[in-house]
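**Backbone geometry record:**
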Amino acid sequence: MDLSCFKAYDLRGRVPEQLNPELAELIGRAYVAVTGARKVVVGYDIRLSSPDIAEALTAGLMAAGADVFDIGLCGTEQVYFATSHFGMDGGIMVTASHNPKDHNGMKMVGPESRPISSDNGLNDIRDRVLEPFEDAPVAGRREPLSAQPAYIEHLLGYVDLATLTPMKIVVNAGNGGAGLVVDALEDQLPFEFIKVHHTPDGSFPNGVPNPILEENRAATADAVIAHQAAMGIAWDGDYDRCFFFDENGRFIEGYYVVGLLADQFLRKAGGGKVIHDPRLTWNTLDLVAAAGGEAVESKTGHAFIKQRMRDEDAIYGGEMSAHHYFRDFAYCDSGMIPWLLVAERLCQSGQSLSSLIDARIEAYPASGEINRTIANPPEVIAAIEQRYGADAKLVSHVDGLSVEFEDWRFNLRMSNTEPVVRLNVESRGDRALMEARTAELLAEMERLNG
C-alpha cells in the first residue's frame, strides 16, 4: 500500500493514487489504535473528494470504537476550535489546503488541539495502517456537532465591537471555503463585504487557492481598487492563512503583518510574550519592545511554534508565511482572527492600512522569501557561513543559518521536503543595501552550486 501521503506535519497526496476512501478508513482505525481517542471531531473542506474521504475516515474511527462528532464542511481552524472548546480527545480535518484540486489530505490533532506530526505520533499512525485490525467490541457512534455558533462568538470576542465603524472590505475566499464564515460574521459587523470567488466550488474554477502565488493576487487587488475598499483579504483553501492588500491594492508581505498584529495584541493585553520565526526579525523585535512585550524566537513550522507558545504562555505567534497563532485559540492558527484585528485597528486609529505598513517597510526593507534549487544545500549553506560568519555580530542556527551585521542580516534555510534553499534579507532603513546584499548572496549561491 502506498503511504507516501504521510508527510512531516500532515497527510497530502493525489486522489485516488495516494489517498482514497480505502486508505482513509484504515487511517481512522490507526488513529484510534495509536492515540486511544474516544471522542473525535471530523470536518472537511470544499474539495469534491472530501465528503467520501471523510465518510470513510469516520467509518474507520467508529469501527475502532471512537465516537465521531461531525462538524461537516468547514475550515481547519473549526476542527481546532471544536476539539479544544468541546473537550474532545482529538480532531481530524480532511483537506489539502492550497494544493491542486485532485489532491487531498488530513490534518490531525490530539487533546487541546495539540498537533500530531511525524515526531509525536504521525509516523506511528502510518506504520499502524499496515497491521491487521479487529473491530472494537462496541462500535462508536456518530453525531452531528454544530460548532459554528460558538466559533463565531469566539471570533468576535477578539475585537471591541463598539469601536468598529462602517468600512468596505474586499474578501476573496479563493473557491469559496472561507465565504461561509464571512457570511456568518456579516450580520454582526458594520462592514460592507465585496465578495470575490465567494461560492464554495470544489472544482476550483478560480485555480489553486493560494494567494502567496503572485498570479493569484490580481482578483483581490483589482476589486480593492475598483470598489475603493479600505483593504482586501484573501485566504488559502482551508483558510488557516489569510493575506492582506492595502487600500491601493498592494499585497502586504506577511512579515509586516506579524509586527502589526503583535503590536495590536500587546496593546490590548498590556504586555506578554510573542513568538516569531527567525527568517525576518528586526521589525517584529522593534514593535514588540515598543509595546512592552517580550519577543521569543522559534524554529519555523506550526508544530514548533505551537509548542513554544505553550512553553512560554505566549499570547500571540506569527510566521511571515501568514500563519498566525493565538493563545486563546488553543495556541492554534486562524485565518479569521487576524483580519478582524486589523479591521479593528483601522477603525480605532483612523489610519489607512498603507500608512500603518509604509513606515515599517521603510524602517526594515526586506527581500521577501527567495527560493533557489540547489544540488547540495548543506554544502552551500556551510560555505556561505564560512564566508560571512567571521565578520558578523551574530550567527545563529535556530532555523537554518541566520547571520547578523550592524545594518543588515539574512537567513538561509533548507526546505524540509525539496532540494531548495530559502533566502531572506533585511536591512535597517537602507533598501539599496538590502537589494545589493540580496544580489550578492544569490550570486554567491549560484557560484557555489556550480
Q: What stands out?
A: The chain has a mean pLDDT of 96.
